[in-house]
Structures are given as structure tokens and as C-alpha cells.
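Quick one: structure for this chain?
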Amino acid sequence: MKLARKLQNMIVPIAMPVVVFLIFFIGQPKRFGTPTGIMIMLQQSVINSIIGFGLSMNLVIDTWDFSAGAQLVLAGLIGAHFAQQYGLLGLIVVTVFMAVLLGTITGAVYSIFKIPSIIVTIGMMLIYESVGSMYQGGKSITIPTDISFLGKSPWIFIVGILTYCLAYVIYHHTKFGYNVRAVGNGEEIARSIGINPIKVRFLCFVVGGIFVGIAGMLQVSYGGAIAPKSGMNTMSMVFPPFMGVFIGQYLERYCDIMFGIFLGVFSMTMINSGLIAMGLPGTLQQVVTGSFMLIFMAISINREKVMLKNRKASA
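Got it. Here's what it folds into:
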């Protein structure tokens, strides 16, 4: 029985990315699944997974952060500017510091005014986008080529693995992670054992900024430059990480949620690449991602109602 359970825990998490890969590889073997293509998909998945690690802290307690993409761009712009003068150290320190600062500001606004997180984070997203568009005259900022190696193999995967370990330790082996899981299991119960949900939600934005900063550093290194975005265009940057977190939450019964996030992000990346390989319009990526988002948001929002209904039915 234990062996069967272990096999299930091994097979179920990897089943989705394997099935997705086989579907598109069989449909377009010449255009999908090449070694170069797989490497690009993995690199993109690392960056989105790291964003997902940060967003997962909020989503576990049903708090949404649509400003993460704008935080990444603004922190990346400032970090890239400092990298031109102070090299790799300037890029790493300034990008992560600015992302944490922006996450702290967002968390403070949410905690003080107690406005729904969706409204707060969309408002902060617009502010961060505007600041990014004004920074350095709204021009794209390029970093020296000799410090862009972090966005390339094998360094991007080394950073990704180290960041996964950091997320795993924070979520599973710290008091903060325990409080996050407690609030996620029931805010009233958490409050009854002395946990302050507002403080936990604030810290989720702060801790999330660490991962957004790391992802921003890799994003700048991966492209060698970063450009400001406006018109809510940064919102689309959080959709793949959101999907990864939703899938990771489902797979948590079989594996670690952080590993599940990576599998979910990688699956969504393959779907987007597969649709392009099959000759479908690139805009269809947004249709697929948006459809998944609506489905999982509906499930997330109605989860407590369903659980309450099931408890009443079994009583």
C-alpha cells in the first residue's frame, strides 16, 4: 500500500507536463521539442516559477497580487541602471532591494486601508508602471554583456534551484511559513491561536518581493536589457505564475507545492510554445491562459462554499 502511494506521488505530478509535451511533439515533431526549444522553455519557466514562489505566499491565504509584474519591471529598470555603474553587484543588490521595498509599500497600503487585494494591487500596478515609464526618460536600459551570464545556462538553473530551496525552507521550516499555512486553513482559527492575519498578509507582500527581485534580476540578465511597460501590460506577466501556483496547490497532495508550481509553469510554457509551433496565432496564448485563469479563480473563490456544503451534507 505504501509502495503504491509512493508511486502515485511520483507519477501524478509529472504526468501533466509529460502529456502536454507528447501532444505537441506528436503534432509537430519538427517544430516542437527540439533541444534548443526545450532549453528556452526551461529558462522561461525558471523565471516565472520564481515569481510564482513569491505569489504563492499570498495566494495560499487568498490574497491576490497583480502588481508583481510592475514591481519586477520597475525594480529591474533601477537595478539595470545601477548595473551600468556598479556591475553585477549593483544589479543583484539594487534589484532585490527595490522589489522588496515595492512589496513592502504594497503590503502597507493593503494593511492600512484594508481594501480588497485585487483593487489595491491593480492600483499599485498602475503607479509602478507610471514611475517606470518616467524613469530615465522611459527608455530601455541595457546591462553590460559581461554580467548578463546569470540569465543563461547553467547559471539561471543554479539560481533557480537555490531560490527553490529558499522558498521551500521559508514555507515549510519557518514561523512565517507556519503562520501562512495556518491563515490559509482558516483565518478565524489562526486568530484564535494568536496569529495576526493582517500582519501575515503584510509579510507575504514583503517576502514575495524577495522572489520578484530575484526573478527581475534573471529577467534583465536573460534579455540583456529591460524596457518599461504601461497600459496594464505588466498584468499579463503574472498570469503564468498564477497558473503555476494554482496547479501547485492542486499537486500539493502529491508533492511539495513549490515543485508543483514549477511543473505547472513549465506545462503552461509548453502549451504556449506548442500553440505557436502548430501555427496558431500568438494571441491565442492569452485566450488559453485567460480561460485557465477564469476556471481556477472560480474554483478558488467558491472553494470555501463547496467545503462548507460538503460538511453540512456529511453531518
